[in-house]
Amino acid sequence: MAICSSCGGSGIQRINDEQFRTCLDCLGLGVVATTDTGTEARLEQPLNPAINAAASSVAAR
């Protein structure tokens, strides 16, 4: 997690002298998720690997 650069970690952005709003970049949390190469590599892998139907049906008996 890294501090949000849009709101400085407060979760709130100043619109003008009298108005504020929730930071939309961090959704008011003040931090944004950082990605690492390990996470990206796992996301690129297929969710369900191919299953050998013959082997799985023998095991089910």
Give an overview of the whole structure.
By secondary structure, the protein is an alpha+beta fold. The chain is built from two helices and four strands, in the order ββββαα. The longest helix is centred in the middle third of the chain and has 7 residues, at 37-43.
Topology record:
Blueprint: E1 2-3, E2 12-14, E3 20-22, E4 31-32, H1 37-43, H2 53-59
Please give the share of residues in helix: 10-25%
Low-pLDDT residue intervals, each spanning 5 or more residues:
none
Strand order of the largest sheet: 1-4
Molecular shape: rod-shaped
C-alpha end-to-end distance: 48 Å
Provide a brief overview of the structure.
The chain is α+β, with helices and mostly antiparallel strands and 61 residues long.
Features:
2 helices; 4 strands; two-stranded antiparallel ribbon; alpha+beta; 61 residues
